[in-house]
Design a protein that fits this description.
alpha/beta; Rossmann fold; 7-stranded parallel β-sheet; 7 strands
Length: about 230
């Protein structure tokens, strides 16, 4: 039976790879996004996840077409890196606003539908740096670390309704974000990864597809690393 899968930021990178995995299984995929439009048949609406009214209106429209949301993947995220002493309030607030507050707004709306039908999968896209930290990313690592507490609180609060909430913590993944790094910097990062390579977006998508499956029905409040061993289970 086809599911309604909502993925924020499914127009590029990891979000698009996750969307393609679910589409291949015959699921309907919707997305709130900013920037270039996602390819068909992804159903997209431009919107800011920091805006509760925009999130609620978009999900209302998607559910009118595709039915209640069965799977939510909170993927949308931004970076505004900088050393602690030079990081501005604006850069800190912007990253927290999208990565953490945006995820909360999407989870809050999607969970109302999930609770009514007593089933659902909530998947939050975190990061290995949310578990082990990274210089120059106090804002980003804080936002991603907080998703772990969010998933575990959701699990305790509504887990009895057949709803699971988990975090995927990707490491360095081959995306437009890593492509801009110099070859020397990429080599330094690769040398720190036990697998000695960057991951692929499809590998993150595989973890998301598993967590949304019946095989993962008894997994909740977990952090699933997709990092080639970089975090070593932090």
């Amino acid at each position: 039976m086809a599911r309604h899968v909502h993925i924020t930021g499914a127009n590029r990178g990891i979000g698009l790879a996750i969307a393609q995995r679910f589409l291949a299984a015959g699921d309907a995929v919707s997305t709130i996004y900013i920037g270039d439009a996602p390819p068909e048949p992804i159903d997209g609406i431009v919107g800011d996840v920091r805006d509760s009214e925009a999130v609620n209106a978009a999900m209302d429209a998607f559910e009118a077409k595709h039915g209640p949301i069965d799977v939510l993947v909170a993927n949308a995220g931004i970076t505004k890196d900088g050393l602690l002493m030079r990081m501005t309030d604006e850069d800190f607030d912007a990253v927290i606003g999208v990565n953490l507050q945006g995820a909360f707004r999407c989870v809050r709306r999607a969970s109302t539908s999930m609770m009514k039908k007593k089933s659902g999968r909530i998947i939050l896209i975190g990061s290995v740096v949310g578990l082990m930290g990274n210089p120059g990313q106090v804002n980003y690592s804080s936002s991603k670390a907080a998703l772990v507490g969010m998933a575990r609180s959701i699990t305790r609060e509504i887990g009895s309704r057949g709803i699971t909430a988990n975090v995927i913590a990707p490491g360095f993944i081959n995306t437009a974000m890593t492509a801009v790094l110099t070859e020397d910097v990429q080599k330094q990062y690769r040398d720190s990864i036990p697998a000695r390579r960057f991951g692929e977006a499809d590998e993150v998508a595989g973890a998301a597809f598993f967590l949304a499956s019946d095989d993962a029905a008894y997994i909740s409040g977990a952090v699933i690393p997709v990092d080639g061993g970089l975090g070593l289970g932090h």
